[in-house]
Specification:
Blueprint lengths: L7 H7 L10 H8 L24 E3 L7 E4 L4 E7 L2 E8 L4 E11 L3 E2 L5 E2 L5 E9 L10 H8 L5 E4 L1 H5 L17 H6 L11 H8 L14 H18 L14 H14 L7 H12 L7 H16 L17 H4 L2 H10 L3 E4 L10 E4 L8 E6 L4 E4 L2 E6 L5 H7 L2 E6 L9
Antiparallel strand pairs: 1-5, 2-5, 3-4, 3-9, 5-8, 6-7, 8-9, 10-15, 11-12, 11-15, 12-13, 13-14
Helix pairs in contact: 7-10, 8-9, 9-10
């Protein structure tokens, strides 16, 4: 099966080399800015909705240890006022902060630079303490000022990406073990992970032709079966969190990630490692949607799965098919889900079928604004997304956070990879 780099001239004409000359960027950005925001504009036709006032909190797994974190770039710190995360200050790159053992992830709205409100699918961690800033900034961040910041009522908040960005690529992710479902989880899901809600009517309007229709491997050629199995196995390898999985598939040095992104955008060369760093720390930042990189992260996972499997991405995702797997087309939830469907992938409703490890999952009906993530195990009760590349156990997630972005309506799998019914 052909690998990606066999025909660079064809790729230049058909796929990526016109990337820098896109004339639609300004139009697309208005959608991208909210591509992973809460799904509130899409009717939940069959759903019984839940609401929860106050903070949106996600206690993280006990396997994830706290540590002193050195910021890999300039980052804002915020405080919570009237349930909105307001800017306090900007910490310079190299600042060391301490994140306590009992830190949580919050998905409250934050004040953006225009004075309006936005929401980050990555979320914010708290409590945070500032330890020290680089010497060049100590005239501004004096000991007295740092002490004052650390005494902020309600504590300080910083983007959850600060935690993952500080992780190295060596070793494996911590294994997430089965946990007792919390009350927030059980509001929307049964104890086995099956949703108590569905968005079937809305999903049928988008994907009726192939929804819940299995593809028999007996009807596939040996080459097709080998291709889809290899791609799926690579997605599973990157997403699996119930067994040891290499961090290098998601993390890489930021400088190396910049080089890898540049090679992709200018030469059409696909990386096989570092998907989270490339998508969230480079591509999304470079193109102005750093607060909502969920679909770009999933897109990068998919590009790299094809590369590791030795499959030709252009056979399934191309300008001709109207589903280029580049940020300008698929960094929105709607764009990513449409691209998968046009590539022949099969959508499955989550209330009828179990999300296999490695399945691309979608909040609600999978339209922007929304959220997308990949199953990390336990029938989709563990997910991997831009805010938790190490894995997030939905059984430990609050009701409000589930309502915002983890009410799985459907998921995609490659043709011939068929899930089990509940």
């Amino acid at each position: 099966m052909p690998v990606f780099s066999t025909d660079k001239h064809k790729m230049k004409n058909n796929y990526l080399f016109k990337y820098a000359k896109l004339s639609v960027v300004a139009v697309l950005m208005s959608n991208l800015l909210f591509s992973c925001a809460p799904m509130e504009s899409i009717p939940a036709i069959e759903e019984t909705t839940h609401s929860e006032d106050g903070l949106s909190q996600i206690p993280l797994d006990q396997d994830i240890v706290s540590k002193n974190v050195q910021l890999q770039g300039d980052m804002n710190i915020r405080k919570l006022r009237n349930n909105i995360l307001e800017l306090v200050s900007e910490l310079p790159m190299g600042t060391r902060i301490k994140i306590d053992d009992n830190y949580q992830v919050f998905h409250n709205d934050y004040r953006n630079t225009s004075g309006g409100l936005s929401r980050s699918s990555t979320g914010f961690v708290s409590p945070v303490k500032i330890i020290e800033v680089p010497p060049a900034y100590r005239g501004t961040f004096t000991e007295q000022y740092i002490s004052q910041l650390n005494r902020t009522p309600g504590g300080l908040f910083i983007s959850a990406s600060a935690v993952a960005a500080n992780e190295g690529a060596a070793g494996n992710f911590a294994v997430i073990k089965a946990s007792t479902p919390g009350t927030g989880f059980l509001k929307s899901y049964n104890s086995n992970g099956r949703p108590k809600f569905n968005y079937t009517t809305s999903i049928k309007k988008r994907f009726s032709a192939r929804l819940n229709l299995p593809v028999s491997p007996l009807n596939q050629s040996a080459q097709e079966k080998a291709k889809w199995t290899a791609i799926y196995n690579e997605l599973k390898r990157a997403a699996e969190r119930t067994e040891a999985a290499p961090k290098s598939l998601l993390y890489m040095d930021k400088a190396a990630a910049k080089v890898a992104v540049n090679k992709f955008e200018t030469l059409g060369i696909f990386s096989k490692v570092g998907a989270w760093t490339m998508a969230t720390q480079v591509t999304a930042v470079k193109h102005g949607f750093a607060n909502v990189p969920c679909a770009e992260f999933q897109s990068e996972l998919l590009r790299q799965a094809y590369a590791r499997a030795g499959a030709n991405l252009l056979n399934d995702f191309s300008r001709t098919k109207g589903n280029q797997l580049v940020w300008s087309s698929t960094a929105s939830v709607t764009g990513f889900s449409n691209a998968l469907y046009k590539a022949g992938w099969v959508p499955w409703t989550a209330d009828k079928y179990k999300p296999m490890t490695g399945a691309f999952m979608f909040h609600s009906a999978g339209l922007s604004p929304g959220h997308t993530y990949i199953s990390g195990g336990h029938n989709g009760q563990i997910v991997v997304d831009n805010g938790a590349p190490q894995g997030r156990d939905l059984r430990k997630t609050s009701e409000s956070s589930i309502n915002i972005q983890y009410k799985t309506g459907f998921f995609f799998l490659p043709p011939g990879i068929n899930p089990q019914a509940w």
